[in-house]
Amino acid sequence: MEKIHSLTGMMDLISSKADKEDLSNKVFLTEKLLKSIFENFSISEIRTPALEDTNLFKRSVGDTSDIVNKELYSFLDKNKKSITLRPEGTASVIRSLIEKKIDGDTHKLWYLGPMWRYERPQKGRYRQFYQAGVEMLGYEEGISEFEMISIICEINRELRIENPVIKINHLGSNETKKNFCDALIKYLKPMKSDLGEKDIARLEKNPLRILDTKDPNTQKILEKAPKISNFLPESSIKMLNVIKDTFSKDCEINIDYSLVRGLDYYTGFVFEAVSSNLGAQDAYLGGGRYDGLCKQLGGKELPAIGMAMGIERLALLSNAVEETKSSISFIIISSTIAANAYKIAHDLRSLNKKISIDVQLSEGSLKSKLRRANKDNADYAVIIGEDELESGDVIVKSLSDQNSEQSNMKLNDLRDFISNLK
Ligand code: HAM
After folding, report:
1. What is the per-residue pLDDT across 347-390, written as a single tens digit (0 to 9) for each?
2. Is 286's C-beta closer than 6 angstroms to any atom of ligand 1?
3. Which of 269, 298, 317 is the last residue of a domain?
4. What is the 3 state secondary structure string of the chain?
5. pTM score, whole prediction
6. Domain total of the chain
7. pLDDT, tens digit, for every residue of 9-27?
8. 42 lies in some domain
9. What's the CA-to-centroid distance between 226 and ligand 1, angstroms?
10. Which domain holds residue 80?
């Protein structure tokens, strides 16, 4: 029969006890560490559906963006309504606040979950990927900009990311953006025929996005183009410099006046975190201020800033190691004593929540079970057979120290031993 494969660009993640460096393990550890960072910053969780009305993304991410133009997973449901697997989380968060009529309050929210973009898969770029995001809602430009960079520094530190660089820019007010775009169009129009097809389309629909071009010819032309820094108010340039000075002890921060983001909703401060260790897809995090989005989606005037990070990209970069805790492989030699032996394991678990007790469920010889315990990197094997059950003794064998002898322990001593493990 023909085998069924997973879809292109979509991975299975299966954790492995044997190989801690495995990407799945790193993904799960990354998620755990991120959640604890978000808790440290007193940010609350929000969970929104994976499927949304297609119009939500058209009206937020923008129909000139690559995401909406080419990458949406959109379908007609049984009612012929166009629905879309979310390509990002920000639009859903705002939709949810508007729907619950809490778009007039302040919120600090985080989310984590799968996102879908129909992109060409390569290292660090998938069609289903996981994102964690943080949105600070109801806060005007000011302290929240600092909080964003502070969270990024904490992520870099906790995940021990190598060569992190935070790029920051300011897109100014709508007026700044308009004046800058007019100047850019005026400069580029006479050279239109030298631009690639994609950049010509950008020039017509969303000129700011030309700054993000990958076309070397356009990049050359842009060297002499007007710079957004010439259009920004003094206060915005000052803010970039203050942020750079405040955090540069913790992380390299570069002011990059050509940084524009791939989604249409940004206004004001924008940023991306990159690492040269990632290769071509070097951004592991991106975000910025989006003060107009809530109103644009039918809600109140709600100043907001946020960011999202690619979990797989963070996992590829992470050098964090799981906090070690003792692990016990619990071996029941014969199924005839399963109930009584399992009861011992069940009672032991309640004595120490910090350790793990893995009861081996399969039938097999003691030798094969010990092999399994070693393969799983267990620290100890606790072995119980019929004789042990009768005498009230169990066998404890250290697996981390191959030279140590196995010892017999009375059940009470085993309880003390388990209670004291770290
Ligand atoms: P974004 O820059 O489109 O921003 O995505 C954020 C991060 O998601 C990227 O930096 C990258 O690490 C990861 N990512 C994006 N596409 C892929 C992919 N195909 N495969 C693997 N990882 C990927 C946003 O999504 C905004 N919603 C961020 C935001 C939140 N802005 C304000 N609030």
Report:
1. 999 999 999 999 999 989 999 999 999 999 999 999 999 998 89
2. yes
3. 317
4. CCCCCCCCCCCCCCCCCCCCCCHHHHHHHHHHHHHHHHHHCCCEECCCCCEEEHHHHHHHHHCCCHHHHHCCEEEECCCCCEEEECCCCHHHHHHHHHHCCCCCCCEEEEEEEEEECCCCCECCECCEEEEEEEEEECCCCCHHHHHHHHHHHHHHHHCCCCCEEEEEEECCCHHHHHHHHHHHHHHHHHHHHHCCHHHHHHHHHCHHHHHHCCCHHHHHHHCCCCCHHHCCCHHHHHHHHHHHHHHCCCCEEEECCCCCCCCCCCCCEEEEEEEHHHCCCCEEEEEEECCCHHHHCCCCCCCEEEEEEEHHHHHHHCCCCCCCCCEEEEEECCHHHHHHHHHHHHHHHCCCCCCEEEECCCCCCHHHHHHHHHHCCCCEEEEECHHHHHHCEEEEEECCCCCCCCEEEEHHHHHHHHHHCC
5. 0.93
6. 2
7. 999 999 988 787 899 999 9
8. yes
9. 28
10. 23-172+232-317
- What pLDDT sits at residue 205? 85
Q: Same structural domain for residues 48 and 153?
A: yes
What is the tens place of the pLDDT at every residue in 66-85?
Answer: 899 899 999 999 999 999 99
Q: What CATH number is attached to the domain comprising 398?
A: 3.40.50.800
Ligand 1 centroid, distance to 355 Cα (angstroms): 36
In-domain check, residue 3: no
Closest ligand 1 atom, residue 313 Cα = 12
